[in-house]
Write a structure and sequence with these properties.
Distance between the termini: 93 Å
CATH class: Mainly Beta
Largest sheet: 12 strands, antiparallel
CATH topology: outer membrane lipoprotein receptor (LolB), chain A
CATH architecture: Clam
Strand content: 35-45%
Number of helices: 3
Structural class: alpha+beta
Number of strands: 12
Order of helices and strands: HEEEEEEEHEEEEEH
Length: 201
């Protein structure tokens, strides 16, 4: 009788173990497309706020977000350069406007996540429907990055912010199409800001 109980227990344990293994999401790999220059259309959703525009990566930590909507942000660009974030509009630089602060916060986390993934030669994650799911942590907060099967950005979610960024399209080696002053803004934004402050004093 004891031998029967032990046998049944072993069989039950094996079945449970097998079921857990089968329920785990299968792994998936993608081509590394995040470590170079590219641009993509974005839709940023945060609470009742929605913004649309074009996001461009030039290098690790160097990004540009050009907004097309809502109207109060149309034409405004956020230039990310390491830990510095400045806003510009038609070549004129200024501090990040209040309306863009939520976008800046979520985009900052996205940039950190993508640049981290871009450091690897290969991209791997869990298969989620037709997407590749990559989970990570930034400053103690969890995020989920979704890639398309070809390795391009699909969606980004930051759990503690309750917001997401949805991406569509992928243009590698993106030319500066948002404005002719994007690269210049990345370089001279700080000096322009200092010059303006000096002139006002």
């Amino acid at each position: 009788m004891k031998r029967l109980i032990v046998t049944l227990t072993a069989i039950t344990g094996f079945i449970v173990f097998t079921a857990c293994e089968n329920s785990a999401a299968p792994s998936a790999n993608a081509e590394q497309k995040l470590n170079g220059v590219f641009s993509t259309d974005m839709t940023l959703e945060l609470d009742d706020f929605t913004a649309e525009g074009v996001l461009t990566r030039y290098d690790s930590g160097i990004w540009n977000a050009c907004f097309e909507s809502p109207s109060e942000l149309s034409g405004v660009q956020l230039n990310f350069n390491g830990d510095s974030v400045e806003a510009s509009y038609k070549g004129l630089s200024f501090s990040v406007p209040q309306a863009a602060l939520p976008s800046k916060a979520l985009l900052t986390e996205l940039i950190k996540a993508v640049d981290t993934v871009a450091e690897s030669d290969d991209i791997s994650g869990s298969k989620k429907d037709d997407l590749i799911e990559i989970e990570g942590e930034l400053d103690g907060e969890n995020y989920t990055l979704y890639l398309n099967s070809d390795g391009s950005l699909a969606e980004f979610r930051m759990n503690n912010m309750g917001g997401c960024i949805i991406f569509e399209g992928y243009s590698p080696d993106a030319a500066v199409t948002t404005t002719e002053t994007t690269i210049e803004s990345l370089v001279v934004t700080t000096s322009l800001t200092v010059a303006d402050e000096t002139a006002q004093q």
